[in-house]
Amino acid sequence: MNVFDIIGPIMIGPSSSHTAGAVRLGQIATAIFGYAVKEANITLYGSFAKTHKGHGTDKAIIGGILGMKVDDAGIKTAIQAAAQAGLVVTFTTDRAKGYHPNTVKIQLKDKDSNEVTVMGSSIGGGNVRVSRINDLKVSFTCEYHTLIISHYDREGAVAQVANLLASSHINIAQMKLYRYDKGGEAVMVIEVDQKIGTHIMEEIKGYELVKSVATVKAI
Length: 219
Prior knowledge:
The chain is an alpha+beta fold. The protein has 2 domains: about 5-135, CATH 3.30.1330.90; about 145-215, ACT domain (Alpha-Beta Plaits), CATH 3.30.70.260. Helix content is about 30%, strand content about 35%. The chain has 7 helices and 10 strands. The strands form 2 sheets. It has a 6-stranded mixed sheet with strand order 2-1-3-4-5-6. A 4-stranded antiparallel sheet has the order 8-9-7-10. α2 runs parallel beside α4. It is globular, with a radius of gyration of 17 Å. Mean pLDDT is about 90; it is low at about 1-15.
């Protein structure tokens, strides 16, 4: 256990699990989406479902979607800020079991009907774990700078990205590959030690086998 685990992050309270972690899940979902959010449908599970208003989890998630940081005083009025920005937000609760107590499913849409669904949990001390992107089970924490690449499951796709990172002097801390079906769609999650420059993102986007690219800064 380190000092961060004991004292928690600098944040708007009252709880690192219910507020700081919730902000970061909103931030991550928006980064993965990559479009201007116009609608957010948020489903809360477990403790989040029971105490989200009292602990400010609802405001925190919206604040994260709006791009606020965990110590932003604007989190307190995030619901009003969303309304002023024209962001339509709905909250529902789900009593389904088998999830981490602090779990949320965030569905985001833009004006052109592009959408993504991200599920994740606040696991303590402001730390989070993403467990699902759309219908695909994943597992990553964003403790590192993270590349999330949707691509076609073909030979050479992984090597092309890995070679680019190596030639750009970016060290891979860990890498996981998830796929729906053999030869179908897949997702690379690559956690790295250095920030990902815009030029690298653009080059990856240009690869024939790549469908989309998102990056999430380390938390």
